[in-house]
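Summary for the steering committee. The consortium agreed at its last meeting that each partner would contribute one worked example illustrating the joint modelling workflow. Our contribution is presented below. We chose a case with several input lines so that the handling of multiple components could be demonstrated. No manual editing was applied between input and output; the record is shown as generated.
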Amino acid sequence: MKDDRLIFLIFTAQNKLRTYLNNALVAANVRVTFVQAGILFLLKQSNGRTMSDLSQLIGVDNSTLTGLVDRLEKVGFVARQASPTDRRSLLIQVTPEGIAEGDKAKMIIKRVNEEIKTGFPPEEMEIFKKILRSFFEKFNKNTGSRSEDG
Amino acid sequence: MKDDRLIFLIFTAQNKLRTYLNNALVAANVRVTFVQAGILFLLKQSNGRTMSDLSQLIGVDNSTLTGLVDRLEKVGFVARQASPTDRRSLLIQVTPEGIAEGDKAKMIIKRVNEEIKTGFPPEEMEIFKKILRSFFEKFNKNTGSRSEDG
DNA sequence: AACAAAAAGTTAGTATGCCAAATGTTTGCC
DNA sequence: GGCAAACATTTGGCATACTAACTTTTTGTT
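What follows is the complete predicted structure of the assembly.
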């Protein structure tokens, strides 16, 4: 009962955060979710990235990105364009509406980011981030199996 | 680019952890996911809890719990039973197989819990947990809206 | 040049998760 | 006792997210 709670704590805290954040976006009449906004930010920074680039940058599987881009495309915030150099690839273009919506989302996201930090000194936040970052080495693309039996 | 990354970091780290953990469970031939295992633990502790009790304890919406219990019931790890005192309520009973499966899951979960902590002194883990716990006050059941305009 | 292997995207299937709405039951108030 | 409000659960709709399998195209090897 003592420390089995770590994973549970992470999961539950993230659930609360996600719900709060997406509700805040809806309340501000933003028409994209947090994850979708991430795509818009990346495309504002550098338009015409490929699907694979985007999925790597936001850290999701290619197949997850397909759905994300589908939804963004349906509402006209991005468009898929054939790559002139590689016929397997698609270049994703953000539209002016997409950029505007991303900017709206950014305000809310910045605010919630600040809310996370309130009440804690910077050193503690650094530790928090350091531990989270360690997950990328520890849990990245590895089945987590030790020497599995048959 | 500096600290907009906090939320992103939390989301992505949790994704890595979840995927790693569920893959570890599959690799160990455990037939339940992490979240399902949480239900089995709670029922082993105290059998016959209601749906509402369970959803509160694991911190998900009632409607999410419906699906979780559906899946556990389908494979025979729990059973729904009518409450004798309140005809609205269902009492969820864990089966011996469910308890056994929960025990199998617990070993893996304990191991991953330890993996999270490796490399960090206890004081840092305490800070980590403290910040996560703050999410429950900050982000609990509140739309996150400030004074939204029309 | 031929052919295998790798890479880019999509699709299908499954599992969380939320919200809103619907159903049935119980409570509280008069 | 009657009726509105609250509660317990489910359903339907949507959004992530993964894995596995599939198609098309490119690369790498001989």
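Residues 146-150 of chain B have pLDDT under 50 and may be disordered. Chain B has one domain: 5-138.
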